[in-house]
Amino acid sequence: MKTLYLIRHAHRDLSDRTLDNGLSLKGVAQAKKIAEWFSSHKIHLPPELISSPKLRCKETLTPLSISSRLPIAIDPDTEEQREHEDSAQFGRRVLHWFENWEQNTAPITLVCSHGDWIPLIISLACGQRVEVSKGSITQIMREGSKAGPGFSVHRLLL
Fold first, then answer.
1. What is the pLDDT averaged over residues 6-21?
2. What is the domain-level CATH number for residue 102?
């Protein structure tokens, strides 16, 4: 079995949207709730937490990183669509990440990313476009091999 946990970053500080703002007070509370959810459900976590380079994603994972004593790895390929990217380039980057995830041997991966990136990953896994709210957790599971029954998608924390 292979599991991918997708966390959409918590609510961000919107005082200046041109900046790489961190979390708002609401977002800080959401980030703590995410860490508490993983702890209370006794989820076996991977050896590292993966984050988009954006501050709001890193701050979303910080309480989980502290409570689990796991480092946060920054992966530029999990970033939202960049200013210089068109939709096709963005889609190729997300597809490349997903294909690498499918091929790696890690049984569990946890990623904090954005409201445009996560729905594309879900679409690649199950063929449906699903919107995700800030501070939510979505689980994608694959049982068996790639040729097996395919993926199941579960919304865990909204």
1. 93
2. 3.40.50.1240
